[in-house]
Amino acid sequence: MPHRGPEWSREEVAAFRLGRHHLARPAPRSRLVEVVRDVCGVQAQVSAAARLAIWTRIRRLTLDDVERALSRERSLVKTWCMRGATHLLPSADLPTFMASLRRAAPRGTRSWFARYGLRGADLEAMAAAVAEALRDGPLNRHELADRVVATQGERARPWVEHGWGGVVAYAAQLGLVCFGESRGQEVTFARTDAWIPGWHEVDVEEAEATVARRYLHGCGPAGPSDFAAWSGMAVRDAERS
Predict the structure, then answer these.
(1) N or C terminus of the chain: which is more exposed, having fewer CB within 10 Å?
(2) What is the residue extent of each domain of the chain?
């Protein structure tokens, strides 16, 4: 007979996940980064929703706590990550998370760009130009577009200024850039190797295994299809992880 793993009731699974996600017992403010790590990042497509997700898990959290972690301490970082969506992640974990998606995320994004006419070497050149433009420090979207246009031509502007991220998001998925410090209501972008303390490259297979373990730690029990849906990987990649 095939081996069967342990079984849990729905109530046991719910209790496990509530605990892991700090929803049954919210954590103190001093554990902000740890909480974001425990939930494998907080989706931040809508900033208010991200703040609410963290606020429900941490007692007496203030907006300044999150802004300080993002901009002054740089212990948290915002970037495009799982499923191509923006997330808040611990800065120390960013090299691992970006490496874990290196095979899956750019592949899907390249297909999207190709459908709209930006292919191959042109896409890679624009992504490299984005990273190069940020060498002197963070820029807002329009400043960044002006720098990229200077080397890639006016055709690059709509791809850099694209409301859903465009080529900036692609450069982020390659691990080249992330969000920088906000200027009021205006976002900026920065090079990861300049913005993230201790940025380093991580082996892809090692990163995939690490992120899979993190996912199971916070969201288990789960199978490859669950991990694929959460991460944006193909199921075959999730099975390998």
Answers:
(1) N
(2) 11-100+208-240, 105-195
